[in-house]
Amino acid sequence: MEGLKNKVFVFAGAGGIADGVAQFLGAGGAKIVVGDIVLSNAQRCIEVIKKSGGDGIATSLDISNEEQVKKLISLGISTYGKINGLFNVAANINPEEVAKDTNPMDIDLDDWQKNIDINLTGYLLTSKYALPHILDAGGGSIVNTISDAVYAGMPDKLTYSVTKAGIGALTRNIASRFGKQGVRCNAVSPGLVLTETGLKNSGHLVDMVLQMMPAPRVGKPEDMGAMVAFLLSDISEWITGQTICVDGGAVMRT
């Protein structure tokens, strides 16, 4: 993919989708700095980009911790001397905590606040500290990750849905405020995206999801990777303030 060579991107969050993005960025000659709460996930992402032809460095990150976010951004500058873009994909997906994210009557306010701190405030923090460097580089791109839960009403995942909707508003604010200075900001909304291992272990879920979408299969990390890499690249320079659903058409009728 063109428009990526020698660009430096910060990833806040790792995992399957981030691996898919790293694959495309590496092929385009980019470099990444990846932070994740699970260091081994960030390290795997670096392995992917290096195999694809790029370079990168991994670190641990609690995206809700302001000092750790500052260190992530500083690592990008000290290692590569610049930051051209930011990819936010972190979210609180701890199964025990997801189970507590229920509805307005039942949710505990501490659980509500923790999800907001990770899923929404974390994206604010990374943007806050990456933006000055993106501006110094003459502009660049920020890509945030929301969810189809924003569009499809769900009886649970209350805070998750609320925070993902908030990220959409944050995305448009950044696009509006810094667009004239060359900063683009967009969001991607994934449907069900599974690695090969996840696909093998999720038969019932896959069957259920496929009944609700026009596409003949669920998503792969590479599906997200292609879209995010495009939005980070220079060839998408006239696209900003948008949310793009990469979900096999799951929410096109909502």
Quick gist of this model?
One of its GO terms (molecular function) is oxidoreductase activity. The protein is an alpha/beta fold and 254 residues long.
How would you portray this structure in words?
The chain is an alpha/beta fold. The chain has one domain: NAD(P)-binding Rossmann-like Domain (Rossmann fold, 3-Layer(aba) Sandwich). Helices cover 48% and strands 15% of the residues. The chain has 9 helices and 7 strands; from the N terminus they run E-H-E-H-E-H-E-H-H-E-H-E-H-H-H-E. Strands 3-2-1-4-5-6-7 form a 7-stranded parallel beta sheet, with helices on both faces. It starts with 7 loop residues before the first strand and ends in an 8-residue tail after the last strand. 48% of the residues are buried. It comes from Algoriphagus zhangzhouensis. Belongs to the short-chain dehydrogenases/reductases (SDR) family. Keywords: Oxidoreductase.
